[in-house]
Design a protein that fits this description.
This protein is mainly α. The protein is built from 27 helices and seven strands. Among the domains are: 162 residues, Neurolysin, domain 3 (Orthogonal Bundle), CATH 1.10.1370.40; 59 residues, no CATH class.
């Protein structure tokens, strides 16, 4: 998942205040940041990587305040320029503005998501409306928009290169979609709503983190964890081994449900997950999301759109809610039919065993694994010993990048990190030149948001003279001291996925940071990451990293064949739970201003019935109340992107298979035509130029075993 858009003026990360006493120490009377603040100037570390050893929580608020003030001064210099608007005196300084703000935002975005604490959470929530107001002060500035509009209307006469011309179009659309053409009264209404929804999104993030932590399953009887390995039980134990804790991941289904044989424990764990944010306490998110949905519908109405989805899809590949719904509709019948067939197989297995019972949500993973084992003679416990985390990373993920693109990696331990488990690597291109730094943070913590994501600490830009510093964050269970970090094949796929985002960022080759790397529409940004997943099972790659952690023996071909044959198993369930989440997102965001929400639970239930996705045994991948992607992480009206880009990634991989598979020549073509292009031209054309035709949904259906 790509978490944070890096556009200098549109940030989803909100930073804020600290105590007043500390503020006086680091900010002058005119709010200029003093040199003692680590954000006052670009870091002197390689590639301007943050000096985490020098950064304190109290540094963020004054740096944020100074950064906003500095950027507004830079904007004022643009609009007060008496010379007629030109590309050089308008768009170049606009691109260069906000560098202090970007530095502090990037680090805060990482820490507030991956290593937060009460002080950072308070900062995040308090400052949210102020940051929304700062954005409005730029995008609703009539004088600035006048200059942008003038150049937009005359862009064909300016003799600009293609990227510069596209930058004008990009900014113009951003201004229009932000409300630059509104009357002042409407702008005032919009600003108020923008501030409120920013506050609520930050509140939701903090509520959900606390709810997930409180929702962890705690047992005081080791026998309740029957089915887990000794290493997994040890990792869950407290110091005196009187209690064992299973933390919640961000999805509805939990990994341990696949192995827990005690049905009462499975039910408790599932229900803890299902109701984590619905306990009627301060961490209950339902009222928060109901209000966010109402505000978004009202924002869209003010801007002249029927729904929030219609507004937000203007700059996406899909363009309209109707196109998204049509796309999802093509998948729903086949997916649900397959899921019902899978449910029947599982129920038959349960009935064949003594004391058969009706299949419930918390039973699916355990018994589907038994069906898979019976059908393919494959057990997850057979697989994990061959997938040690860092071996998979260095000899699998990195090796694939070497074979395709010629990259090499070298771990370095001289750079400061924000948490002891984080690893840092130099990234070298095939000519030996270093193109960036990569940070990997892979273990779950109770102060880390769920899921997995990528983002930049430093963006690539020729104009700014910067190269990428990129991080991946995951949530794998940290093993007990002295034990290997063994992961599932799903986890392996996640490693390849997130590094696909990183490659998209490392190969960025843009003049302007706004168009650089992964700063693309949501329904394109997941394409490179999902495409990279295909190499996890590619024979020459798999054979380079799948070694038993104890014996060093390569995974036997018989087991590899079983994994491949089983890879299409349970795809009805997997696709249906993803479709349910994507459809819930669209249902929430196709509400009009006139629609009323009785309550979140009723709305969710009715929405699943409306979309024919109300399968009892297949819950949504995310319930509305803990759907972090759409309420706080920038995927509102965009969660369909994972499935949309799955169509692209399977179709692109079909091209590779048709043209010799994994070769340096094919990798270079993909790098040149997709990964290095950023947001420099229309994405439909970009894909068509690579593929030679429009994308087909057929490879997706084949890969999901739905055809």
């Amino acid at each position: 998942m790509k978490q944070i858009a890096a556009f200098a003026l549109i940030s989803v990360v909100i930073l804020t205040t600290s105590c007043q006493k500390e503020e006086k120490k680091v900010v002058t009377e005119d709010n200029t940041l003093l040199a003692s603040n680590p954000f006052a100037k670009a870091s002197e570390l390689p590639f301007q990587a943050p000096d985490f050893n020098a950064i304190k929580d109290s540094d963020f608020q004054p740096a944020m305040d100074a950064g906003m003030k500095e950027q507004l001064k830079e904007i004022e210099a643009i609009v007060s320029n008496p010379e007629p608007a030109t590309f050089e005196n308008t768009f170049i300084p606009l691109e260069k503005s906000g560098q202090l703000l970007n530095r502090v935002r990037a680090v805060f975005g990482l820490l507030s998501s991956a290593n937060t604490n009460p002080e950072l959470q308070a900062i995040q929530e308090t400052q949210a409306p102020k940051f929304a107001a700062h954005r409005d002060a730029i995008y609703l500035n009539p004088e600035l928009f006048k200059r942008v509009e003038t150049l937009y209307n005359t862009r064909e006469t300016l003799n600009l290169d293609a990227e510069s011309s596209h930058l004008i179009e990009y900014y113009y659309q951003r201004f229009i979609l932000s409300g630059a053409n509104l009357e002042e009264a409407e702008k005032t209404k919009l600003k108020k709503l923008n501030g409120e929804v920013a506050s609520l999104s930050a509140k939701f993030t903090n509520q959900l983190l606390a709810a997930a932590k409180a929702g962890a399953l705690v047992v005081d009887n080791k026998e309740a964890l029957a089915g887990l390995s000794d290493a997994e039980i040890d990792a869950a134990a407290n110091e005196d081994k009187t209690q064992w804790t299973i933390p919640l991941q961000n999805t509805t289904q939990q990994p341990d449900l696949q192995n827990l044989t005690n049905r009462d424990t499975r039910e408790k764990l599932f229900k803890n997950s299902w109701t984590r944010a619905e306990q009627g306490d301060e961490n209950d998110t339902r009222k928060t999301i109901e209000r966010i949905a109402e505000i978004r519908a009202e924002q869209a109405s003010i801007l002249g759109f029927k729904t929030y989805a219609e507004w937000k899809l203007q700059d996406q590949m899909a363009k309209t809610p109707e196109a998204v719904l049509d796309f999802l509709g093509q998948l729903i019948p086949a997916a649900t039919a397959k899921a019902k067939s899978e449910a029947a197989d599982i129920q038959a297995l349960i009935d064949s065993q003594n004391g058969g019972f009706k299949l419930e949500d918390w039973d699916w993973n355990l018994y589907s694994e038994q069906v898979r084992k019976a059908r393919y003679d494959l057990d997850e416990s057979q697989i994990k010993p061959y997938f040690e985390l860092y071996n998979v990373l260095e000899n699998g993920v990195f090796y694939a990048a070497n074979q395709l693109y010629g990259l090499t990696f070298k771990e370095r331990k001289d750079l400061p990190v924000y948490q002891e488990d984080v690893r840092v690597y130099d990234v070298m291109d095939k000519d030996g030149s270093q193109i960036g730094l990569f940070y990997g943070d892979y273990f779950k913590r109770d102060n880390k948001s769920g899921g997995a994501w990528m983002s930049n600490l430093i963006e690539q830009s020729k104009l700014l003279g910067t190269q990428p510093v990129i991080y991946n964050v995951c949530n794998y269970t940290k093993p007990a001291e002295g034990q290997p970090a063994l992961i599932s094949f799903d986890d392996v796929t996640t490693l390849f996925h997130e590094f696909g985002h990183a490659l998209h960022g490392f190969f960025a080759d843009q003049q302007y940071v706004s168009l650089s790397g992964t700063n693309t529409p949501r329904d394109f940004v997941e394409f490179p990451s999902q495409f990279n997943e295909h190499w996890a099972l590619y024979p020459s790659i798999l054979k380079n990293y799948a070694f038993h952690y104890k014996t060093g023996e390569a995974m036997p071909q018989t087991l590899i064949d079983k994994i491949k044959k089983a890879s299409t198993f349970n795809q009805g369930y997997a696709l249906t739970e993803a479709l349910s989440a994507a459809s819930l997102d669209m249902e929430w965001h196709t509400l009009t201003k006139e629609d009323t929400i009785e309550d979140a639970d009723s709305f969710e239930k009715a929405a699943l019935i409306r979309t024919h996705l109300n399968l009892k045994e297949v819950p949504p991948r995310y319930r509305s109340s803990y759907f972090l992607h759409i309420w706080s992480n920038g995927y509102a009206a965009g969660y369909y992107a994972y499935l949309w880009t799955e169509m692209l990634d399977n179709d692109a991989f079909a091209w590779f298979e048709e043209n010799g598979g994994l070769t340096p020549e094919n990798g270079q073509r993909f790098r040149d035509m997709i990964l290095s292009r950023g947001n420099t031209e229309a994405f439909g054309k970009l894909y068509h130029d690579f593929r030679g035709q429009e994308p087909s949904i057929e490879p997706l259906l084949k890969n999901r075993s739905l055809k």
